[in-house]
């Protein structure tokens, strides 16, 4: 009899998470004050300070999905927002690249409220009844409106995981979930200092923030793709492109970080490979010049330890 696989559904209240992240770093209500939703970078009249702030507050969707994949195979992934807004539209490449279904929600009132909470809740309940094998529901939001949804999912025998921005998530929502994680603590998310709001009246001429003064004449487009580990091990073979080697190294590190939550010091190599494939389905050790997965691991011993005393092979990150 085949082993039952854990099947995961991810639902992202996109406005909730990106606005919370921006306000977390730049001050309460700053997203609205800076008029970020309709901000278009690289225009002659675009404010370089705001452009720098947006880049700094970019949400790493890949880190969220990689964390979700540590619970099982992702079978549903949806993000809810008004994708016609320039700020949200800038994330489309990042989301589509990870096969996230973009659910369009047009504002229904002057307040720009798009009804994401209602649509998200309806989809979660519908999927819970329609997809009988669904085991995990991951809600990426911090709004207390999702408390009844989390409670209902638990009654339907689904394991509920919440992900929200620190300081912007209802404590009651976290308590209603089986497990909760701060976005800031996810593996791969850069820890950034919280800054004070900028006085734009003076910043335009002098006293700009460090983020603004370090921008170039042509700011990089945002959101930027998730960077690979700068401490990656050298390529084991001259044949595979170096970017493939660096990506594989970063994926291995992230897989070990994610598996560390099971409180085991050593991880089985087979479990590590499964997690790496969840993060990057295109991973193949043969494409990197290695005949076996164990050979790939041996080439990364600069930052991992391997226990070969008894089968199966086990490994862990060096302390």
UniProtKB/TrEMBL annotation:
<feature type="region of interest" description="Disordered">
    <location>
        <begin position="213"/>
        <end position="244"/>
    </location>
</feature>
<feature type="domain" description="NYN">
    <location>
        <begin position="7"/>
        <end position="182"/>
    </location>
</feature>
<protein>
    <submittedName>
        <fullName>NYN domain-containing protein</fullName>
    </submittedName>
</protein>
<dbReference type="Pfam" id="PF01936">
    <property type="entry name" value="NYN"/>
</dbReference>
<dbReference type="Pfam" id="PF12872">
    <property type="entry name" value="OST-HTH"/>
</dbReference>
<dbReference type="InterPro" id="IPR021139">
    <property type="entry name" value="NYN"/>
</dbReference>
<feature type="domain" description="HTH OST-type">
    <location>
        <begin position="255"/>
        <end position="311"/>
    </location>
</feature>
<dbReference type="GO" id="GO:0004540">
    <property type="term" value="F:RNA nuclease activity"/>
</dbReference>
<feature type="compositionally biased region" description="Low complexity">
    <location>
        <begin position="230"/>
        <end position="244"/>
    </location>
</feature>
<dbReference type="InterPro" id="IPR025605">
    <property type="entry name" value="OST-HTH/LOTUS_dom"/>
</dbReference>
<dbReference type="InterPro" id="IPR041966">
    <property type="entry name" value="LOTUS-like"/>
</dbReference>
